[in-house]
Design a protein that fits this description.
Elements (H helix, E strand, L loop, with lengths): L3 E5 L4 H12 L3 E6 L4 H9 L3 E5 L5 H14 L5 E4 L17 H22 L8 E5 L15 H21 L5 E6 L9 H6 L6 H13 L10 E3 L8
Parallel strand pairs: 1-2, 1-4, 2-3, 4-5, 5-6, 6-7
Length: 236
């Protein structure tokens, strides 16, 4: 296929699985990762239309420099997957023990980092473009049940708001923006609990669902913006 695809957090886990899905489709892929992994490098040896670039989404100059080549080459970005994110296991505590200053890294990456990438590529979003922001059900205020993880939950709620504001801005040009909860992933970020739980999901399974949603975005009602990877709507 002749489509331009950008993926952040592409070095492992869900991001790498999304990259591989689009490799199978023959798309031109721009894979962004703060620390390039051997698995991602291996993909380039098999697929010449995969372009890898180091990108620290916590830095505005870093994002602008990383995407410059893509913006110069592509007339339109068809799919942007904002997958890069961080989680501090130390944040699994009540407010009295929460290190707010240390937790700001999650705000910088999970919320503001996502916004930096969207801002950088917005000139290349047009009719049929889809922005998939991988946030989390932990960012849902209407379905909040946690008593811990203050900074993580706040970062994901902020990412949801950024996504909705962007959708309002680009809707008139025919671009769709959606927030997707990828499930409890069996990854490093998911932790040991995910690896042992029957309720968790593999990165490959989640990626297959997310890419299908993006490719079949016209099947998603226009008033639905926040969903699970299974397609189930989530409350804001």
């Amino acid at each position: 296929m002749d489509r331009a695809v950008a993926v952040t957090g592409a070095g492992r886990g869900l991001g790498l699985s999304v990259v591989r899905r689009h490799v199978e489709r023959g798309d031109r892929i721009y894979a962004y990762e703060v620390n390039i992994t051997d698995d991602l490098r291996g993909c380039t040896r098999e697929y010449e239309k995969l372009h890898i670039c180091r990108c620290d989404i916590s830095s505005t100059p870093g994002v602008e420099a990383a995407v410059a080549d893509m913006l110069a080459k592509e007339e339109q970005i068809h799919f942007l997957y904002n997958i890069a994110g961080v989680f501090r296991f130390e944040d699994r505590c009540g407010l009295a023990d929460t290190d707010i200053d240390a937790g700001m890294v999650m705000m910088q990456v999970n919320a503001v980092g996502l916004l930096r990438m969207c801002k950088a590529v917005i000139p290349k979003l047009g009719a049929g473009s889809v922005v998939v922001n991988v946030t989390s059900e932990s960012g849902s205020i209407g379905d909040c049940y946690r008593e811990v993880e203050y900074m993580y939950g706040m970062s994901k709620a902020a990412a949801n708001m950024a996504s909705m504001l962007l959708q309002n801005e680009v809707k008139k040009r025919g671009t769709r923006v959606i927030c997707v909860h990828p499930g409890w992933l069996r990854t490093v970020m998911g932790g040991e609990g995910a690896a042992a739980s029957p309720y968790s999901v593999s990165p490959d399974e989640s990626a297959a669902n997310i890419v299908k949603i993006a490719e079949e975005i016209d099947k998603l009602p226009e008033n639905v913006y926040f969903i699970e990877h299974t397609g189930k709507p989530l409350p804001w």
